[in-house]
Design the sequence.
């Protein structure tokens, strides 16, 4: 879904070149700043941070600007006008300009289109039909009469849904309800669920965006759907609580999912912030603490989820490669090698080092350096065994399926070899991809404290990738058995 458009007009500083009249259009990846001048402008010399003041007085900071194009118009012999178009990666709207390199931000807040469905408290809002006398006692002396059939929409007052201390700062998930006084058209309460992060020390704009990305990857894993934030608010340590925070537009944020969110998703989510708050907070806090060492693998995983129901060979290869990017503590212990084998490898390494440099020589030396390390297959199966400790009845022959998935990855990376029959495995490539991604997600959640046994006992619909995979797994394994690709017990 595309980001909504906002337009600002004002004067913008061009460092030593002077000022320009500019029109800023904020529309996600289609955002652009168009600068109009009566003098020639060298696009390459324009600053990456351009600051302006709108006609309404707002301070506009365009951060990480890159040139997109330029046009020149000549009117008469001496009148020349230049129009320069740039793409800003971030746009900050506030009372004062924001220095990208300055550590000024001590609190951020954001939401996503699906955040309410993922972590909201549906019991905090309701609709009741009180007795007339009870409603009369509630509203007190009022000119309005109360009759049978009166209706009341309410918010329970539970603002905070969950709070947790993390490496990113203190995270709060909260309701932000609002409403209007009644009219002839009715009355109601609207709510936006938001996440805030309060820092122990002020941070820069880039660091603030990075911390939001960590949380978005967690929400992506939790929902099985790509989550994005097109904007967030940032409060500086110099601002008091009554001051309006800056609004930061993330122009390069990817579009959110166009598929409608299933209404039954709340019953299928692996975690529930509202009703199982302690478990949710413990898992999220642990997941964030583990993020630095698993960043590359988790980015690969989030990119795979963004594909949705589209499966490609690249997605399968990336899904398998995630396990190669995990830290040593997430991998099995490497096998102990016999002394004679180690001695032979050492002598062979010396022989190849003395040869002239060539791709074949370097490939052999790389292979020798990996001798004794865990293989990709062993890493993937090790993570699969974490699932089987609690979920084995649901996923028979899981290790065989994972082994086949890695063989397919090797086929696409290294070419045909071994006993893999590509024509036989081709129809199962989506299943192999899902198996790798499911294994990666669930093994991480289990290690972070998720009560997976409770999930396995509960009834579910098929609105989440976890429950859909679980429901279809046995039938797909039987199809593998019929094809002769796995051996059933």
Sequence:
């Amino acid at each position: 879904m595309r980001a909504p458009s906002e337009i600002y007009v004002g004067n913008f500083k061009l460092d030593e070149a002077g000022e320009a009249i500019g029109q800023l259009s904020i529309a996600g990846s289609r955002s652009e700043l168009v600068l109009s001048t009566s003098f020639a402008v060298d696009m390459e010399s324009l600053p990456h941070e351009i600051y302006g003041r709108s006609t309404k007085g707002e301070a506009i900071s365009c951060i990480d600007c890159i040139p997109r194009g330029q046009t020149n118009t000549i009117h008469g012999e001496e009148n020349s006008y230049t129009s320069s178009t740039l793409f800003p990666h971030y746009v900050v709207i506030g009372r004062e300009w924001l220095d990208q390199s300055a550590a000024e931000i001590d609190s951020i807040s954001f939401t996503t289109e699906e955040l309410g469905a993922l972590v909201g408290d549906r019991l905090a809002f309701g609709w009741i039909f009180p007795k007339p006398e009870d409603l009369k006692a509630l509203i007190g002396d009022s000119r309005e009469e109360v009759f049978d059939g009166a209706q009341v929409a309410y918010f329970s007052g539970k603002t905070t849904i969950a709070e947790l201390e993390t490496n990113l700062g203190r995270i709060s998930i909260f309701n932000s309800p609002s409403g209007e006084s009644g009219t002839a058209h009715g009355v109601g309460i609207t709510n936006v669920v938001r996440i805030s992060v309060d820092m122990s020390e002020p941070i820069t704009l880039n660091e603030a965006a990075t911390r939001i990305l960590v949380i978005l990857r967690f929400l992506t894993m939790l929902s099985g759907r790509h989550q994005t934030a097109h904007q967030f608010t940032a409060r500086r340590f110099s601002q008091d609580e009554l001051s309006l925070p800056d609004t930061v537009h993330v122009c390069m944020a990817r579009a959110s999912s166009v598929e409608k969110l299933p209404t039954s998703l709340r019953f299928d989510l692996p975690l529930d912030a509202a009703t199982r708050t302690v478990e949710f907070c413990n898992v999220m806090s642990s997941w964030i603490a583990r993020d630095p060492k698993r960043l590359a693998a988790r980015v690969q995983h989030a990119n795979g989820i963004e594909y949705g129901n589209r499966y490609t060979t690249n997605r399968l290869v990336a899904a398998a490669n995630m396990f190669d990017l995990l830290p040593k503590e997430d991998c099995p212990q490497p096998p102990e090698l016999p002394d004679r084998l180690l001695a032979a490898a050492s002598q062979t390494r010396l022989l190849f080092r003395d040869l002239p440099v060539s791709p074949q020589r370097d490939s052999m030396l790389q292979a020798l350096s990996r001798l004794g390390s865990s293989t990709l297959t062993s890493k993937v199966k090790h993570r699969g065994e974490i699932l089987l400790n609690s979920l084995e009845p649901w996923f028979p022959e899981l290790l065989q399926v994972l082994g086949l998935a890695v063989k397919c990855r090797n086929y696409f990376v290294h070419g045909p070899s071994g006993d893999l029959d590509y024509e036989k495995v081709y129809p199962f490539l989506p299943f192999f991809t899902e198996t790798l991604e499911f294994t990666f997600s669930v093994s991480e959640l289990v290690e972070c404290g998720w009560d997976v046994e409770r999930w396995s006992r509960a009834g579910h619909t098929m609105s989440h990738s976890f429950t859909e995979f679980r429901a279809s797994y046995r039938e797909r394994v039987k199809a593998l058995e019929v094809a002769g690709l796995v051996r059933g017990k």
Remarks:
- The longest helix spans residues 205-223.
- The longest strand covers residues 59-75.
- The chain has a mean pLDDT of 90.
